[in-house]
Amino acid sequence: MKNTKKLLSQSVIAGLTALVLPLAVQAKSDDNMHQLYQDNCASCHGADHGGYLAPALNADTLKGRSPTALRSLIMTGSFDTLMPPFYGRLTDDQIRGLVSHLQKTPKLDNPAWTIDDIKSSLKVYVKDESTLPDKPTYEINSMDDVIGVAARGKYGRGEGSKAVFINSTTHKQIGEVPTVTAAHIIDYNPANPRWAYVKTDTAEIYKIDLYSMKAVRSVKTGFNGPGMGVSRDGKYIMAGSFVPHNAVILDADTLEPLKTFELEGVDPDGKMVTSDSGMVIGTPYDDIFAIALENAGQVWVVDLKKDQDFPVTKITDVGRHLHDAFLTHNGRKLMIASYDDSIVAAIDLKDRKIIKKLEAGCVPHVGGGSAVKVDGRTLGFGTNFGDCDKTVVSVWDLDTMEVVKQIPVSGGTESPAAHANAPYVAVDIISKDRRARTVQLIDKKTLEVVKTLDVGGHAYFPEYSADGKFLYVSAGYSGDEVVVYDSNSLKKVASVRMESPAGIFSHGRVKYMTRGLSPDEMEGAK
Amino acid sequence: MRIFALSSVLIASLAVAQSASAASIYAGHAIAASTCAQCHGVTTPSSGAPFPPLAGRDAEYLKSALKQYRDKTRVSDIMNNIAGSLSDNDIDNVAAYYSKLKP
After folding, report:
1. Which pTM does this prediction carry?
2. Burial class (CB in 10 A: 0-12, 13-18, 19+), A90
């Protein structure tokens, strides 16, 4: 009775407040909607409403869209994309509230995330690392045989979101580490095989002990952005964000931030801009990081000299909207994709200048890139989204920096996989129809597509096992499995179930630098 | 997606032509992937999803539930619409697919 009275009087007060202060109530509901957006949508659509893996959702981009259509899209999700159904997860009122909130919210300014914010976000899960086992707690011949898969989870967060590790000789799962939001990038420490680093969609970096399959520490480096690299000595990590426009160097051991960089500069059209961070890469060639400033069209080379406060050499006018890259020639040359002028720029990291800009199809996205030695030549393979009529994979001679061939493929592509011991270069077809289920295989010698594999789901991110005997492919969303093929016969040999798998990262990458090269390539670098 | 839907229809009609009574799990898989998987998963739903798993459920139960959703004797905003697009054959096939799947 007492309670009822209390509730009643509360609701009377609430009712009165609503009458008297409609603005205050409105503001409160917007606060709730803002929180709902941050908790359910922001990791893909951007904490600033500016888009990330998924489109920007703000007053501008949603202008004139039917609220009813938006509501049903949120309820059912979108079949050909990562967008999951929110029916049953959010109430109808919440969905309606979100739609109206989004249609009147402008793209927000970049929220600040300073070195102090990064410092205070550090979490330690294992205080004393000497308590960890000194060898793997599972059966494995070489740590190079570990393959890591970024399992997104259907909702990009929650129980399904984790880094899953597989023994690539037995195709059995050997461990998994929950990451709260979707795992995006997995990198390995080149100096110590036990450490892996996982970056999530919301820019947390987890330091993972592969021997015990446990997260040891984590730190939040920003709000989103995939950029992460590890230095050749395994002492530093560099991470770059889309939101906010900065990058940070971390101590790879403690994950403590050492220095942040504001990403801004004059773009190739002469305009001063602040910039998203594209790829960040460490190289076996030198104690440096290279980082792409996407919008400024610059590549910065950061010398890992702590006593000199990490000096930067800026290479300007590289291209319009830079994104990802791969290394060649012992890690001295960097091949970086430029979306808007459809080139891949070759950069010499020793002289710190552009060697040449090469034709690269339409909207090149090289993923992890691939390079193979064939008949004395080193050939680089470049995938591209192919948002035009021409859907090709570009092949470049990386010694002479000439285009060798543009191989017609059945659609847009996102990531090429190659291995010194495997006969084919695999590319994932991403065009949003039945082709998205497929991966095409290019013969290294003839440079022709020789086979199309129907993997199912939305097949992407092919990767070879470290020994080159097996090809791993994510069947992605609506596939929910990683499918394993024999590299020579292309027969399916195994399947590993997980929720919405995406990027696949072999531990072997630390040995061969760029996929497709032999570990011998690295000898000259040391 | 259209090609996919079309090919699943083709597969379904081929399966029917071969044997009028036997349900095809291949055709069922195609329907599952194009119609059900978004919520229920092609094998299991997301661990974070509020949707029931279908793998290993009794085929007769799945068929009767889908038919009830289709004729709206069982009411659900979403399922009434989705089941409304399925033929008797589709229902037989997709029920065969999920019922034979290991949970």
Report:
1. 0.88
2. middle
What's residue A6's pLDDT?
44
Q: What percent of chain A has pLDDT over 70?
A: 93
**Cβ-based contacts under 8 A for chains A and B:** 72
A434 touches chain B (CB under 8 A): yes
| CA–CA gap between residue A314 and residue A354 (Å, rounded) | 11
Contacts of B33 in chain A (CB under 8 A): 456-457, 478
Per-residue model confidence (pLDDT) at position A74: 95
Chain A residues closer than 8 Å to B49 by CB:
84-85, 88-89, 154-155
Q: Is A95 left (phi over 0), alpha (psi -120 to 50) or beta?
A: alpha
Smallest CA–CA distance, residue A423 to chain B, in Å, is: 30
DSSP string, A280-347: EEEETTEEEEEEEETTTTEEEEEE--GGGT--EEEEP---SSEEEEEEETTTTEEEEEETTTTEEEEE
Judged against a pLDDT cut of 60, whether residue A76 lies above it is answered with yes
CB proximity B2 to A under 8 Å: yes
For the beta carbon of residue B87, count every other beta carbon within 10 angstroms.
12
Does the domain spanning A121-126+136-525 belong to CATH 2.40.100.10?
Answer: no
So what's the pLDDT on residue A477?
A: 84
B51 and chain A in contact, CB less than 8 A = yes
Q: Tell which B residues from 17 to 46 touch A, by Cβ distance under 8 Å.
A: 33-34, 37-39, 41-46
Q: Which residues pair with residue A320 across a beta bridge?
A: none
- Two structure tokens written together for A182: 């979707």
The predicted model gives A482-507 an average pLDDT of: 96
Please provide residue A30's backbone torsions phi and psi, each rounded to the nearest 5 degrees.
-65, -40
**CATH code for the domain of B65:** 1.10.760.10
Q: Is the pLDDT of residue A478 over 60?
A: yes
Q: What is the pLDDT of residues A190-236, one digit of tens each?
A: 999 999 999 999 999 999 999 999 999 999 999 999 999 999 999 99
The alpha-carbon gap from A409 to the nearest alpha carbon of chain B, in Å, equals 18
User: At residue B103, does pLDDT exceed 90?
Assistant: no
Chain centroid, CA A243 distance in Å = 14
Peptide bond before residue B103 is cis, with ω within 30 degrees of 0: no
* pLDDT recorded at residue A238: 98
**A2-104 maps to which CATH number?**
1.10.760.10
Burial class (CB in 10 A: 0-12, 13-18, 19+), A321: buried
Question: DSSP class of residue A137?
Answer: S
pLDDT score of B21 more than 60: no
Domain boundaries, chain A: 2-104, 121-126+136-525
- What's the rounded Cα separation, in Å, for the pair A356 and A344? 9
The complex's ipTM works out to 0.72
Domain count, chain B: 1
**Which residues of chain B make contact with A73, given a CB cutoff of 8 A?**
none
By Cβ distance, the residue of A79, A88, A153 closest to B51 is A88
Best residue of B46, B85, B101 to probe chain A, by most A CBs closer than 10 Å: B46
Lowest mean pLDDT across A212-221, A362-371, A385-394, B69-78:
A385-394
